[in-house]
Please model this.
Amino acid sequence: MVEKLELTDEEWRKRLTPEQYEVLRRHGTERPYTGCYLGTKDPGTYVCAGCKNPLFRSGEKFESGTGWPSFTQPVADDAVTIREDLSYGMRRLEVRCGRCDGHLGHVFPDGPPPTGLRYCMNSVALEHVPEGQTTELVTR
Ligand code: FE
Model:
């Protein structure tokens, strides 16, 4: 099980960059084709930019043509949580970090095999950890 990390809004504001805070804690969306991981193919793991929880692997990343880094599945079922998002007159499924509850993006049912899912992520909510390197979970 993922051990949860809960911080106050004030603590998040201090720890994150303004861009990270806007996406992770305010449910913002980076503009398409602007994210730093859009074309990244380097082997490794993508962790949560807020708490370093491992979220996605490079092997499940694919070129979706949407302008955001996209994955077919997370590293584990409990790496992320999914909730219904009815904002902007649409019904979408929001993807959050399973550990810190930070907003990561949305998941859509139009991805490639094997899952048919497209986890559409904001680069700013992620951090790429190269293969062979490790990163420490952020704690209180
Ligand atoms: Fe997190």
